[in-house]
Amino acid sequence: MTELSVRALAEMVGGRLIGDGERMIRGLGDLRTAGPEAVGFVRDPRYHEAARGTKVGALLTDHELATDAAQILVADVDVAYAKVASHFHPMPRAIAHRVHPTAVIDPEATIEAPVQIGPHAVIGRSRIGAGCVIMASVTIGDDVELGRDCVLFPQVTIYDRVRAGDRFYAHGSCVIGSDGFGYAPERGSWHKVPQLGGVVIGDDVELGAGTVIDRGAMNDTVIGSGCKIDNLCHIAHNAQIGENTVMAAGCMVAGSAKVGKNNLWGGRSACAGHITIADGVRLGGGTNALRSIREPGEYMGYPPVEKKRFVRIQKAIVDLPEMRAEWVESHEETNGEA
Amino acid sequence: MTELSVRALAEMVGGRLIGDGERMIRGLGDLRTAGPEAVGFVRDPRYHEAARGTKVGALLTDHELATDAAQILVADVDVAYAKVASHFHPMPRAIAHRVHPTAVIDPEATIEAPVQIGPHAVIGRSRIGAGCVIMASVTIGDDVELGRDCVLFPQVTIYDRVRAGDRFYAHGSCVIGSDGFGYAPERGSWHKVPQLGGVVIGDDVELGAGTVIDRGAMNDTVIGSGCKIDNLCHIAHNAQIGENTVMAAGCMVAGSAKVGKNNLWGGRSACAGHITIADGVRLGGGTNALRSIREPGEYMGYPPVEKKRFVRIQKAIVDLPEMRAEWVESHEETNGEA
Amino acid sequence: MTELSVRALAEMVGGRLIGDGERMIRGLGDLRTAGPEAVGFVRDPRYHEAARGTKVGALLTDHELATDAAQILVADVDVAYAKVASHFHPMPRAIAHRVHPTAVIDPEATIEAPVQIGPHAVIGRSRIGAGCVIMASVTIGDDVELGRDCVLFPQVTIYDRVRAGDRFYAHGSCVIGSDGFGYAPERGSWHKVPQLGGVVIGDDVELGAGTVIDRGAMNDTVIGSGCKIDNLCHIAHNAQIGENTVMAAGCMVAGSAKVGKNNLWGGRSACAGHITIADGVRLGGGTNALRSIREPGEYMGYPPVEKKRFVRIQKAIVDLPEMRAEWVESHEETNGEA
Prior knowledge:
3 copies of one chain form a homotrimer.
Chain A: E1 4-5, H1 6-13, E2 16-18, E3 24-25, E4 27-28, E5 38-42, H2 48-53, E6 58-61, E7 70-73, H3 77-88, E8 98-99, E9 104-105, E10 110-111, E11 116-117, E12 122-123, E13 127-128, E14 133-134, E15 139-140, E16 145-146, E17 151-152, E18 157-158, E19 162-164, E20 169-170, E21 175-178, E22 183-186, E23 189-192, E24 199-201, E25 206-207, E26 212-214, E27 221-223, E28 228-229, E29 234-235, E30 240-241, E31 246-247, E32 252-253, E33 258-259, E34 264-265, E35 270-271, E36 276-277, E37 281-283, E38 288-289, E39 297-300, E40 305-306, H4 307-337
Parallel strand pairs in A: 4-5, 5-6, 6-7, 8-11, 9-12, 10-13, 11-14, 12-15, 13-16, 14-17, 15-18, 16-19, 17-20, 18-21, 19-24, 20-25, 21-26, 24-27, 25-28, 26-29, 27-30, 28-31, 29-32, 30-33, 31-34, 32-35, 33-36, 34-37, 35-38, 37-39
Antiparallel strand pairs in A: 1-3, 2-7, 22-23, 39-40
């Protein structure tokens, strides 16, 4: 049962309760249309008027409002909303043990109960923790270890020798543990270098759809606990991503790069191989780092510069044609004078 | 039977017939090698000589040619070719009802007849329109609605609560409805924000292989009718793409961005979140829009500028080292004088 | 049996043997920890000290070392390592014929023995060479030809009319033969142009996870023998990639582009449609080529310039704000004087 009292919700989010804590709440609701069994939220002064006339049972807010609804005052409405919404709309989690008859599971696999395994899933000689939900057409190789309460969405592929912690979420068509890109050239052609490492993924990692994490060449590729990596990202062999680092869609980390903790990368950012990005670095979307970044801070562009400078560079680029025209002209004058 | 008379072909493309309209045509053919049951086309004066001696039964052309073939004169050979080629090589469409015995279909699914459902497909409590072709290993969640004559190529994943119109084509390994990328930070770690919206896709939309469309956070992500989105594109949560917009491979639209109708984006273009791109905007390949573009027109670069200026910027960038060297030198002189 | 004498290993890599050639080697090992049945390697002077005390049976090295291990002296340790590692850790290859009972294979398919076909694989009216390993949930259409000893990792999709040579390796969720991106515009909407060509892939080609190769519009898309294309790359319709060309992750080749032999593209490089890139071109990561590159060499940037100039451009870009500020100021002065 997911129904909760307003008081219990306030406790869940660490908020201060104003008004009736005994009302029972059954879900989220729009403060303009929902009724007394819903909890709404107000993040924006534009909704203060709507809050005044709302019929919802409770409101999450960071300002005390004039309203008949119970109020749960919190410092950060976004965090409170995330927690409350996750209570009413949790990630899938296996409660009952259900394995679809079309799934193909190696007899030597170790499947803790309860798990849910969908149609046409394939699981090798691997270990799957309790609570995991393995959706349709997922394929998992041998010597894989998944912690508890993981969710693999349809068509995810996990190669051999990948290890992930608890609450690992991988969206549709992710590929984890594919061969790193390693070849040795000899007289114009290429010898494949076998990729003998694995992938190690911490707890609470989420990977977006179509994202690929390659296995290491000799050692492992490592994704730290708490990392969130969006769609269509690429993490090359032997890369190491520190804890709680977040990368938006299309980011690419080249081989053996070491990205620190608590990075925040905008979409389509990238870094070169074998470099180091410090902890606490923020990269604006589209940033391309060819060299190590040693200091935390906010960078953007190609080359990455501090964001304020980036904005000025963008402005200057637009004027480049005129700047160059005069520069060319000045040379012609000089030449003319010569 | 796909055989058609030349006259019927001329009517299909709205062309003017010259010559024998009663000949029967059975397919496309190269005007240099094919015989009288083929229709060829001439888009380029280089082929006028070949047209003179051709044995094909009919030619699509925008100029009257000296040839024994029947001629179908049209204003736009490309459009006429697309129509004629689509007649002889149509997209797959279910005529007979055929469900592969290995497909796993929820007993509460509503499958109109006829449809084709391939091996290992998985369909939840959803509605599939007549004429649809669901290929091998496609997985469809619950509360999905597909219109008529859709084609889902192998390994496509559709999450719950996605709605698509008629003639929706999604190529291999597309993912539609994956969770948007939303987290709320608290003391260095991240709380997942449940993604409660869906995806709404109009009629006549085609998605390339590996493309991902995320579901909305609260409202829906919307792809307008007639949109064509190439391979490995990413459309983030709550984005809205206007009708008949075309994006080449690798384009990325960040969260809550609103892209207008009849846009034409070159490959690897992108726009930032929460901005607006007007109707009728063309972006050259690799364009990166961080701010709204309010006027239709042709833009390119980073920042996006009008295409002519972009070309001049590219030229200027090449000269930057010398421009900078003189600039540095002039400062050294100044310093020396001081 | 993969066990080999040191002498046989030396012969395999064309190296000069120093010491006992009769020792039997059973695998790779770290020279600091492994025992006499392992072969180690030394690429870096930092390991010379470790080599002195090593217990491994043999060392691959390009310098004669002070060590009790047998030594195999080679000109290129990387190549020798690739060969030795591939001996002990070869790519999967079917030795025994094993078709999983859940695989769905067209009765008219031609499957040479031995092959391995995994669970839930789907194979149309196609030809699969001996030695191939088709992993779980791979789908192959009709009129596909695969040579010998190919490996298709899970979830790979091959559309109809794709032809690949021997030792074709395609990683998870690759899509080969999807429709090229072709539409003809008429009054604001788009007519699909049927994509009637195929894909032709040579011998010894490897494709990374999530990579997409589109089929040609009329003729074929062609990937030359020996090409290695990393994760999440896109090769558009009718592109031609010359032999032994290597592209790191995220590269994109637009339609009808012709890329030469022995190219080496850094990650996220791209080229425009209908252009030609010469043989022997190296592109630094993130390079964007809008025009043909006629001369072999090393290019980088957007526009691509020789690498040395690229480094100077990057440096100049950082100074642009000040350069522009003075330029603006000089104009204001001029205006003030006027």
